[in-house]
Amino acid sequence: MAAKTIGIPSLVRSVARAFVVYHPLHITSNLSYHSRLGYLPLTAPTSSGLCHLTQAIKRDVDVLLKGVGDKNTIEEVKHILEMAGRAASRREILHTNFLTPPVLKESLLAVEKLADVKAVAQGGYPQAERCRISVGVPDVFSSDPDILAALSITGNFGYQPCSHGDFLGAILGTGIAREKVGDIILQGEKGAQIIIVPELVDFLISSLDKVGNVSVSCEKIPLIALDYEPPRTKSFRTVEASLRVDALASAGFKVSRSKLVDLITNGDVRVNWTPVSKNGITLKTGDIVSVSGKGRLKIGEINSTKKGKFAVELIRYL
């Protein structure tokens, strides 16, 4: 189905006609995500014409972001839409940092409402959660951009296992910003593999020498060498009177309802990677609930019972 496009306000329509050249819209598959990203590519625009069109896009941003509740996510998506505009007007490819799942999701939903600029989102492997987006007009993409690198971090972790947080903390401790690092794939006693922006590979290899109390060495590896497995899950069913997050999450994580409410109050509960502050939020099939220190839960099939309750499939990530 063709993406719905946002029209140019009549105020600038006459200006836009002088500069807009439409390119065929096409989609390319990618390792983890792909989408259509739209904008009006310009050929040799005058400064005044580009200024008017930029104002038009800014005016449309509020429409594109309608329904996005988290303020931080809104700001990040705005930056990506602005990047799409710059990429189109300059006829070049621009790249984001690694994006969190909610920002990635909302960005792709927003830009699908526009037309004629291509977006490729890459995370390094099919199940990647943190991805980078590349944007540009279709004819400047010769192939998927080379914007990811992988490193293997090895050490004697047999007697001193390290967690995801241990590896991330060690990496950030070198001075690298979080948005420059993608997923971290734990390898048990072997250590971990990480996805990172290519320009920081040499720096991290020379700077990272310890994770926790374990001495480590880093080596660049090809993306094809990433050793990942589909996440292990356990499914079970529960019957609840409501689909509220406190009801389903307490059943899924085997904690009391009052304890779950306390976790929500403390900011330890996220729905689709966005923190929630109210326990009355209603969940639906496909939602992901994460609780600090307890893991993640996916909401599966939901059916109504004869007694007016809800039979819900809960999928716990192990």
TrEMBL record:
Recorded superkingdom: Eukaryota
InterPro entries: Nucleotide-bd_a/b_plait_sf, PSII_S4, RqcP2_RBD, S4_RNA-bd, S4_RNA-bd_sf
Annotated SUPFAM superfamilies: Alpha-L RNA-binding motif
Any Pfam family hit: YlmH_RBD
Leader sequence segment: none
Residues of the RNA-binding S4 domain: 243-303
Gene3D superfamilies: 3.30.1370.160, 3.30.70.330, RNA-binding S4 domain (3.10.290.10)
Keywords on record: RNA-binding
GO molecular function: RNA binding
Cross-referenced SMART domains: S4
NCBIfam families: PS_II_S4
Protein name (database record): Uncharacterized protein LOC107422429 isoform X1
